[in-house]
Amino acid sequence: ATVHPFYGEHQAGITTPVQEHLHFAAFDMADGATRDDLVSLLKDWSYAASRMTQGLDVSASGAVGGSPQAPPDDTGEALGLPASALTVTFGFGPGLFDARFGLASRKPAELAELPRFLGDQLIPMSSSGDLCIQACADDPQVAVHAIRNLSRIAFGRAQIRWSQLGFGRTSKTTVDQSTPRNLFGFKDGTANILADDQEALKKNVWVAASDAPAWLAGGSYLVARKIRMTVEVWDRLRLAEQERTIGRNKGEGAPLSGGSEHTEPDFTKAGKTADPAIDPRSHVKLAHPDFNKGVRILRRGYNFVDGNDDLGQLSAGLFFLSYQRDPQQFIGIQRALAKDLMSEYLVHTGSAIFAVPPGAKEGSFVGAGLFA
Ligand code: HEM
Question: Which residue intervals define the domain Dyp-type peroxidase C-terminal in the entry (predicted)?
Answer without folding.
Answer: 179-360
